[in-house]
Amino acid sequence: MPTSLIFFTLICPLVFGKASLPLVINTWNFKNATEAAWAVLQSGGSALDAVETGCNRCQEEQCDGSVGYGGNPDESGETTLDAMIMNGNTMEVGAVGDLRRIKNAIGVARAVMEHTQHTMLVGESASVFAENMGFIAEDLTTIKSLDIFTQWLKGNCQPNYRKNVLPNPSKSCPPYKPQVKLEQKKQLPADIRSHDTIGMIAFDQYGHVAAGTSTNGLTHKVPGRVGDSPIVGAGAYADSLAGAAAATGDGDIMMRFLPSYLAVELMRTGMDPSAACKMAISRIKRHYADFFGAIICANLTGHYGAACNKVDGFLQFHYMVSNGESDAPLLKSVDCF
Q1: What is d(CA 199, CA 234) in angstroms, rounded to the nearest whole number?
Q2: 226 has binding-site annotation
Q3: At residue 190, does pLDDT exceed 60?
Q4: How much is the pLDDT for 20?
Q5: Is residue 4 part of a domain?
Q6: Which residue numbers mark the site Cleavage (predicted)?
């Protein structure tokens, strides 16, 4: 038996997640989202339908307060949403950023993919598009998000994500003006509790793959900020000839490295999913040793893996898997490095 075949026969089961298709894998312990996506695949639905359904479940349930309406308000107190969905068969993508008034961000992202020749719509124009497509306009503010915003104002608008600006003399709040003499300011680390993302990958029984994301972004973000979640290759990437990946964490840093795209390309060369995820994280660590982030990966055979960067308060990353190993979704974890 050739050495390479011996490796894949004997060694790979030790380093890969167990191989099985169909497959659903998503970031964090968002079990209900996993179950919703898995039910779609079990009923014969497509990988694309599974991703949309799973991410929408998180939006409806306001997973961890970081996905969907009523969470993580920006500096003006408004909750805005980012989302993306990608078809690994056709390489089509639909994405929305800074979406307002519409709860089903992943649904609008799919509408962008299926009803326009564009890839991404943002801001007020994305919301108008959604309304034209029949999505209901609703207030995304809740008592919880309003309280978060009120407490932030009482704390002189700290923390925030501004740098090299001069606030009002009386308080550290808007309006801000540029500071003429730029100062070196250490980048504010993203509070692990202030944001999250659902990133989801789904393979059907034929190996067709889709990936998607949904989030309401950073708490107290500068209005208009769009994170990594809706950026192709950053928040997620899928290719039915290679595999798929999805990321979560400090999007302002992670999007600069396109970690999901990198991980998929590494799997295309034959690298196992765990190693591909770790390499994608390592690329970012070289420049930002203290960034908060993680990534999930899965290849065409149904093997999967994950990796995360070790920082204070974030030593282990949890994610969900459904692939026939069990009647219920399985909670998996990986130690950060």
Answers
A1: 11
A2: yes
A3: no
A4: 86
A5: no
A6: 196-197
Q: Domain of residue 73: give its range.
A: 20-140+195-335
Q: What is the pLDDT of residue 168?
A: 81
**174 inside domain:** no
Q: Express each pLDDT in 165-189 by its tens digit.
A: 988 887 888 889 898 777 665 555 5
pLDDT at position 89, please? 98
The answer to whether 332 and 18 are in contact (CB under 8 A) is no
CATH code for the domain of 28: 3.60.20.30
Q: Which residues are catalytic?
A: 197
- Which phi and psi angles does 277 have, rounded to 5°? -60, -45
Q: Is residue 329 part of a domain?
A: yes
Q: Any known ligand binding at 162?
A: no
- How does pLDDT run across 241-287, given as a tens digit for each residue? 999 999 999 999 999 999 999 999 999 999 999 999 999 999 999 99
Question: Is residue 227 a known part of a binding site?
Answer: yes
Overall number of domains in the chain: 1
Dihedral of alpha carbons 220, 103, 63, 95, sign: negative
In this structure, is the dihedral angle defined by the CA atoms of residues 102, 73, 36 and 242, taken in order, positive or negative?
positive
Within-domain flag for 171 = no
Residue spans of beta strands (DSSP E) within 51-179: 81-87, 92-99, 120-122, 165-166, 177-178
Q: Where are the alpha helices (DSSP H) in 116-258?
A: 123-132, 143-154, 251-254
